[in-house]
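Example for tutorial group B:
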């Protein structure tokens, strides 16, 4: 377990944890090559339908967790078709097309249909291919089920991240990754997309990573979530309130160490604080 004995250790803990959650540049480069390999066929004709490709999600926001932390971290790719033709067919038809396309582009991967996407499992990477249609006004729709489409805005969280970075810099992405680590370690009470949106739209008062994590975590509402999710969130907030109280009083640092170890159970192996 990481030893936290003072306020300086508290800040260094979160800085070290943030650094441990950043994907190495070599891995980003490898993922970029996979995407370019797929985009080589960005104008693919299957039958009489033309598909375009857009990358979205945590990959574009640079909040993807390392596979060593979350084996389900994936690259999200929209495969878009003009709306006039999409309306003529159910989403399941395009998922079938995507399954064929994925097999051509990733011959060494394991391909399976999910909802609403096609998942490509590679040795160190998951890719989520999502059928999409775009209307004349630029509105996006993805499958609601095998037969119906629903409107969505796949880039809204990215835009919120860009705005938030103008105010808080890269620290806000560190906060997002740390909150995603907690979420993943406690049964995912939030959808990752929703959790990141809350992180990037929050109006922070503090400017250190640890204090920002506490601030946004204590603001999370658990309305409309399952009883289990509510229990996980309330437990997290009780622990972080205790951490905040210790931080403000500059006492009981062993309690801080205990609570952070429970909230981020893998951090002891990930974080090593240099001795001063």
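The residue assignment follows.
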């Amino acid at each position: 377990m990481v030893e936290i004995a003072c306020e300086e250790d508290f800040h260094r803990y979160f800085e070290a944890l943030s650094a441990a959650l950043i994907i190495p540049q070599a891995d980003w480069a490898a993922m970029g090559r996979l995407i370019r390999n797929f985009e080589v066929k960005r104008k693919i004709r299957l039958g009489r339908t033309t598909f375009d490709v857009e990358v979205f999600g945590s990959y574009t926001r640079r909040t993807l967790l390392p596979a060593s932390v979350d084996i389900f971290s994936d690259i999200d790719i929209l495969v878009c078709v003009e709306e006039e033709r999409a309306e003529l067919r159910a989403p399941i038809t395009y998922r079938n097309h995507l399954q064929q396309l994925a097999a051509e582009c990733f011959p060494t991967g394991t391909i399976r249909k999910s909802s609403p996407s096609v998942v490509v499992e590679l040795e160190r990477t998951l890719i989520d291919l999502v059928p999409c249609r775009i209307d004349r006004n630029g509105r996006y729709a993805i499958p609601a089920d095998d037969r119906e489409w629903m409107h969505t805005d796949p880039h809204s969280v990215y835009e919120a991240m860009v705005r938030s970075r103008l105010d808080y810099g890269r620290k806000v992405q560190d906060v997002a990754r740390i909150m995603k680590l907690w979420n993943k370690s406690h049964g995912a009470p939030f959808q990752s997309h929703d959790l990141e949106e809350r992180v990037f739209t929050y109006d922070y008062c503090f400017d250190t990573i640890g204090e920002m994590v506490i601030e946004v975590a204590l603001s999370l509402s658990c309305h409309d979530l399952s009883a289990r999710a509510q229990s996980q969130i309330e437990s997290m907030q009780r622990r972080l309130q205790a951490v905040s109280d210790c931080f403000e009083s500059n006492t009981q640092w062993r309690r801080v160490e205990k609570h952070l170890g429970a909230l981020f159970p893998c951090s002891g192996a990930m974080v090593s604080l240099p001795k001063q």
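The longest strand covers residues 74-82. Compare this with the pattern of hydrophobic and polar residues in the output above.
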